[in-house]
Structure formats: structure tokens, C-alpha cells
């Protein structure tokens, strides 16, 4: 399966037949139907001539299933994971969950060609866009190819469409790295103190279980904080 968050966003404003959905997701129609019968995918909207229509949420959910499979989760475990999620999550919300799941995996950097970079980005890339990805340390020139951080590529591609200057994007990236590193350092200190008396195997096991929980907590608290900051800013702008 080769579903990307970028593709899911592209499909957000349109509907797809089951054949189109399967092609975009890189799976078979049979797989889509199988996921539907297991409850992993919500039912399609029935359109004219009783043709089922799928949207960006379905594509994003397929991308999340793909990531969970990459993490080694069984189908039963994936069912339990998805069953705990709200049924009305948007494609953007599902992409955030996918980002959290992807963060559980070790950092991976791959060397790819220019054509492969564009394929993984899900769209053609201009020289200027490739340079911006390089400035963000997402796709760094390496000989006649590029060293790509697979975990950051989708985010980097989405940032290409943000109407901010490269300087603003880089400043935001620096701020996020600095604050997230500080939060990680404080949390690591707290966890280290909490397990100081435990044996090494117990510490490693606890760390493996805590990692996804801590990442999810950081994502949730950051989303809420950002939402509050934006609300205060918009209220202030409206009052002036």
C-alpha cells in the first residue's frame, strides 16, 4: 500500500468510486471491501445508480491502517485501535493519528533519486520546492540523489503550500524543535526518576509502552494549546 497523507488531502473535496479509492491507496478492491466488512472503513455514501462513493476520510483511514501494519500490528490489534477512535474523524484528524503512529518507529533516512522523491511526495516538485525541502532538512542533496527523512516528507510537502515565507517556516520549525526537545528532556527526567529502582528489562519494557502514550499526550496538549492561542488571537482581532 502506498497511500500518502497528501493524497488523502487531495481527495478531501471529491468522491471516489471503490475502484478509484483502491487505485489511489495502492490496494485491491477486494481489500477495500474486506476492510469494510471488518469495520475498519466506514460505509460509503450511496449515490446515483446505487454506486458507493468514498472520500478523503476513507483514503486517510487506509493510510493509517498501512502505518499500523508497518508497525507490526495484527489485524485484530488494528481493529481495536481504530475502534477506540471517534467515528467522525476528518481526513486531517486521521493524518495526525498516522503521524503519531509513525513517530513510534525509529528515525529512517533513505537515499532516493529526484524521480522517486517526486513519486513519494505524491506530486511533481519544482527546483524551488526541492530546495525548500532541503532547507527544512526533509530532502537533503546527496550526490546525484537526495537523503530523505521519510517521517517528515509528507509534512514538508504540505508546508510547501502554506502561504508563509521559507524564513517563517524555518523559524517555526526551530521553535518547535527547541520546545519539543525541552519537553522531552523534562519528561525523560521524570520517567527516569520514577523507574530508578527497577531492573533494566523492566525499564526497557516500560519505555516501549510509554513512548506512544507520551507522544499522543504531547500531540493532544499541543493541539489544545494551539487552538486556545488561535482563538484568543482571533477574538482580539475581531474586537479591534
Mind explaining what this structure looks like?
By secondary structure, the protein is mainly α. The chain contains eleven helices and five strands, in the order αααββαααβααββααα. A three-stranded antiparallel beta sheet has the order 3-5-4. A two-stranded antiparallel ribbon has the order 1-2. Strand 4 and strand 5 (145-149) form a beta hairpin. Helix 4 runs parallel beside helix 6 (91-102) and helix 6 runs antiparallel to helix 11 (200-239). The protein is globular, with a radius of gyration of 20 Å. 22% of the residues are buried. Mean pLDDT is 78; it is low at 1-12.
Uncertain parts: 1-12
Query: On the 0-100 scale, what is the average pLDDT?
Result: 78
Derived from helix and strand composition plus strand pairing, the structural class reads mainly alpha
Strand content: 5-15%
SSE pattern: HHHEEHHHEHHEEHHH
Overall, the morphology is globular
Q: CA-to-CA gap between the ends?
A: 50 Å
What is the CA-atom radius of gyration, in angstroms?
Answer: 20 Å
Q: Percentage of helical residues?
A: 55-70%
Got a strand count?
5
Number of helices, counting only DSSP H or I runs of 4 residues or more: 11
The main β sheet shows up as: 3 strands, antiparallel
Strand order of the largest sheet: 3-5-4
Amino acid at each position: 500500500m502506498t497511500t500518502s497523507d497528501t493524497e488523502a488531502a487531495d481527495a478531501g473535496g471529491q468522491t471516489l468510486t471503490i475502484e478509484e479509492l483502491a487505485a489511489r491507496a495502492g490496494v485491491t478492491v477486494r481489500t477495500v471491501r474486506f476492510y469494510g466488512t471488518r469495520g475498519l472503513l466506514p460505509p460509503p455514501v450511496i449515490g446515483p445508480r446505487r454506486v458507493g462513493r468514498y472520500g478523503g476520510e476513507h483514503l486517510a483511514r487506509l493510510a493509517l491502517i498501512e502505518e499500523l501494519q508497518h508497525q507490526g500490528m495484527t489485524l485484530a490489534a488494528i481493529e481495536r485501535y481504530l475502534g477506540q477512535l471517534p467515528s467522525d474523524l476528518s481526513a486531517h484528524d486521521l493524518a495526525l493519528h498516522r503521524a503519531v503512529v509513525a513517530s513510534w518507529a525509529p528515525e529512517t533516512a533513505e537515499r532516493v533519486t529526484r524521480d522517486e522523491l517526486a513519486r513519494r511526495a505524491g506530486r511533481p516538485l519544482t527546483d524551488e520546492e526541492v530546495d525548500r525541502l532541503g532547507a527544512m532538512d526533509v530532502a537533503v542533496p546527496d550526490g546525484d540523489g537526495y537523503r530523505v527523512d521519510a517521517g517528515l516528507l509528507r509534512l514538508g510537502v504540505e508546508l510547501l503550500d502554506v502561504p508563509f515565507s521559507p524564513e517563517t517556516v524555518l523559524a517555526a520549525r526551530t521553535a518547535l524543535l527547541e520546545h519539543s526537545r525541552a519537553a522531552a528532556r523534562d519528561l525523560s527526567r521524570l520517567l527516569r526518576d520514577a523507574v530508578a529502582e527497577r531492573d533494566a528489562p523492566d525499564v526497557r519494557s516500560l519505555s516501549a509502552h510509554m513512548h506512544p502514550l507520551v507522544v499522543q499526550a504531547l500531540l493532544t496538549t499541543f493541539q489544545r494549546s494551539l487552538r486556545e492561542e488561535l482563538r484568543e488571537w482571533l477574538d482580539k482581532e475581531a474586537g479591534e
